Amino acid sequence: MSYRALSLAAIATCLAVPAFAQSMSGQDDPAVAIDPAEALANAALDAAPVFDGHNDVPIQLRSRFDNQINNFNFTDTLNTGETHPQGRVMHTDLNRLAKGKVGAQYWSVYVPASLTEPEAVQMTMEQIDVMKRLIARYPDSLSYAETADQLETAMANGKVASMLGMEGGHSIGSSLAVLRQMYALGARYMTLTHSSNTPWADSATDRPEHGGLSDFGKDVIREMNRIGMLVDLSHVSEETMLDVLDVAKSPVIFSHSGARAINGHARNVPDSVLARLPANGGVVMVVGLPGFLNDENRQWYAEREAEVARQMSLYRGQPDIWARAMAEWDAANPEPQTMISHMADHIDHIKSVAGVEYIGIGADYDGMPTGPLGMEDVTGYPALFAELARRGYSQVELEMISSRNAIRALRDAEQYAAGVADELPIETILQTQE
Predict the structure, then answer these.
(1) Angle at 47 between CA 5 and CA 102, to 5 degrees
(2) Whose CA is closest to 155, among 285, 42, 49?
(3) 395/404 Cα distance (integer angstroms)
(4) What is the pLDDT of residues 129-140, one digit of tens each?
(5) How many CB atoms lie within 10 A of CB 158?
(6) Domain segments of the chain: what residues?
(7) Which among 299, 294, 366 is positioned nearest to 92, based on CA atoms?
(8) What is the DSSP string of 243-304?
């Protein structure tokens, strides 16, 4: 347990739910009933607003608006349904971030894993550019940040501290020089893979090629540690996770993952890795994607995919027939609802295996169709924290989960980098193109 965690734990006994309830609006009106759990959650989020690990607004700007944002209104995006093929409204805007008590955000500069590495490098830079431009357009609400100190200053000033994270190691083109330049452009974490392997690391959702990390992949981790960029292990295989923990000298994060013991999806974190988090100091930022939370939902998706394959095999070249068949299947087999309680179950499990000091939130808004019922968009965080309060989490624990753990991991990575500032960059042989 870190010094900060011990300090927070030491003051936990000074806090009690009634004191929080008295601080809430309506306290002087005996007719207004105050839910102690909601009061506790609000008090925690007022003291430590949410620092979310993963939001995909940047790719929404690209897919919906071709990164043409000079006339885009980020204050209110409730009218964006017409910009999406399925009519989905964006999950995020400034009004709803305020309602959700979000104080800091890692904006994901995601690019598809299907791109070639040179294409991925260019597109990543374009996504960094568009997000920086969006942040600059709203200086009263957003504040660009590259350090833990800048983040905490922005939060103290009532702004959403805005940091950048790369999703997918293909974005560096297998080049440590590009990695260093992405850091210079502001990227403060990198997810090592996305849905496919990189030439140096195995993905959770691809056929293993490297047995975890290649030798070059281990150099990537060492160089990320040296410069202070957080290693993000969402999307990587269990073997890659374990290899990283063997190499890493500073905390890792999982920017948007759940617990595999609760939902068996390969994107979630197994107990073998959770058990090693305290030694590393890393943080699992728990995801809100229903298929990763509710195992019944995961099973439903598998059954539906199997039925699609069956219908397409039965009626090859006849899409109208299998489309009607799937409409009938969907009507007879509604998707199971995923609740806030499912997300809380993952938090409970991670706490039981690793400890509350190693939990954060990384919902994945605007990178999924919807969050759980009651957490469909970024306004839903207070409801999650009220659920945790009902389960017995103290204010100190809620503050750890909302942002203090994530800030601590970022600061620890910065401090490690500062301590090795005299070390020279890792050099590798350049790969030449024939």
Answers:
(1) 105
(2) 49
(3) 12
(4) 999 999 999 999
(5) 12
(6) 36-289+338-419, 295-336
(7) 366
(8) HHHHH-SS-EEEEEE-BTTTS--TTSBPHHHHTTHHHHT-EEEE---HHHH-HHHHHHHHHH
Contact between 226 and 204 (Cβ < 8 Å): no
SS3 164: strand
Indicate the angle between helix axes 176-184 and 117-137, nearest 10 degrees: 10
Mean pLDDT of 384-402: 98
Give dist(CA 165, CA 127) in Å, integer: 11
DSSP H or E segment with residue 120:
helix 117-137
pTM: 0.92
- The model's confidence at residue 355, banded by pLDDT at 50, 70 and 90, is very high
Catalytic residues: 54, 56, 167, 194, 235, 256, 364
DSSP tag of 44: H
CATH topology of domain 36-289+338-419: TIM Barrel (3.20.20)
> How far apart (Å, rounded) are the C-alpha atoms in residues 248 and 230?
10
360 in Cβ contact with 406 (< 8 Å): yes
Q: Is the pLDDT of residue 308 over 80?
A: yes
Of 142, 131, 192, 134, nearest to 164 (Cα)? 131
| R_g of the chain computed on alpha carbons | 22
What φ, ψ does residue 254 adopt, rounded to 5°? -115, 105
**Which phi and psi angles does 36 have, rounded to 5°?**
-60, -35
> How far is residue 307's CA from residue 236's CA, in Å, rounded to a whole number?
28
Provide the Cα torsion 235, 287, 187, 238; round to 10°.
-30
In a 13 Å sphere around the CA of 88, the CA atoms on its Cβ side amount to: 18
The answer on pLDDT for 27 being more than 80 is no
Quote the tokens at residue 212.
Answer: 């975890």
- DSSP assignment of 327-389 equals HHHHHHSPPPP-BHHHHHHHHHHHHHHT-GGGEEE---BTSSS--SBT-SSGGGHHHHHHHHH
Per-residue pLDDT at 31: 55
What token pair was written down for 108? Answer: 């994901």
Check: CB of residue 43 under 8 Å from CB of residue 23: yes
Structure tokens at 156: 């103290």
Which candidate, 1, 49, 47, places its Cα nearest to that of 23? 47
Q: Is 55 helix (H, G, I), strand (E, B) or coil?
A: strand
Secondary structure of residue 86 in the 3-state scheme: coil
With CA atoms as reference, report the closest residue to 273 among 286, 264, 282, 263.
282
